[in-house]
Write a sequence for this structure.
């Protein structure tokens, strides 16, 4: 079956611009996660959705970052007034939400802020 | 909070060599433990997992045993192949809600 998909695969933007990154999870997965991975490091948690609501957004670095999942499926990560330090690969993952279930990752969106 | 520490790389091996990548964890209770792999140019893939103490996860010739006595979840493979060259991440749930906390990753390079 189809895995997690993310669009775009690459995004280049200028400092100060607004960007949206999209994630389409595995069908039927209720839990959705956003992570950020900088070069040479492990992914770092940003936000977690259970259904439509953000169950934990404690990983968002500041109020320029926001994410939505209005119908409990597709999610959009939104970054306002981008800064060069936002450059990273943004990963989305989904899972069944059951205890012990693994998370399945998309290919990521590489964001470059010039 | 929960955390993992894994050995730094890169690890360079010849084909058919034995592989161990160390991972130790600090956790409240006994959470599930995971190994993920990231092949060049690809996304993270779940390699194997163990959900309770003494469980052994296995996949593609890789194994890892959940050892609560030593708080470890070392990844092993008896005979590596060039195609195993990748970055390997140890991970566990960070807090309630199951978001994952990852180690820094270990790059494995297998030479023919």
């Amino acid at each position: 079956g189809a895995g997690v998909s993310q669009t775009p695969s690459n995004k280049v933007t200028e400092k100060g611009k607004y960007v949206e990154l999209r994630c389409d999870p595995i069908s039927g997965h209720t839990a959705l996660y956003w992570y950020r991975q900088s070069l040479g490091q492990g992914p770092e948690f940003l936000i977690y959705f259970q259904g439509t609501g953000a169950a934990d957004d404690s990983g968002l670095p500041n109020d320029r970052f926001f994410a939505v999942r209005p119908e409990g499926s597709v999610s959009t990560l939104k970054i306002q007034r981008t800064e060069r330090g936002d450059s990273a690969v943004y990963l989305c993952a989904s899972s069944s939400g059951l205890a012990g279930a693994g998370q399945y990752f998309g290919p990521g969106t590489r964001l470059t802020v010039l | 909070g929960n955390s993992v520490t894994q050995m730094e790389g890169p690890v360079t091996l010849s084909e058919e060599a034995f592989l161990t990548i160390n991972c130790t964890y600090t956790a409240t209770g006994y959470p599930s433990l995971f190994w993920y792999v990231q092949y060049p140019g690809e996304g993270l893939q779940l390699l194997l997992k163990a959900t309770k103490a003494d469980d052994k996860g296995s996949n593609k010739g890789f194994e890892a045993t959940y050892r609560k006595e030593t708080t470890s979840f070392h990844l092993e493979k008896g005979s590596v192949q060039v195609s195993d060259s990748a970055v390997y991440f140890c991970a566990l749930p960070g807090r309630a809600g199951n978001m994952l906390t990852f180690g820094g990753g270990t790059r494995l390079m297998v030479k023919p």
Summary: The interface with chain A takes residues 32, 34, 36, 42-46, 49, 51, 89, 91, 94-95, 97-105 of chain B (CB under 8 Å). DSSP finds no helices and twelve strands in chain B. The mean pLDDT of chain B is 93.
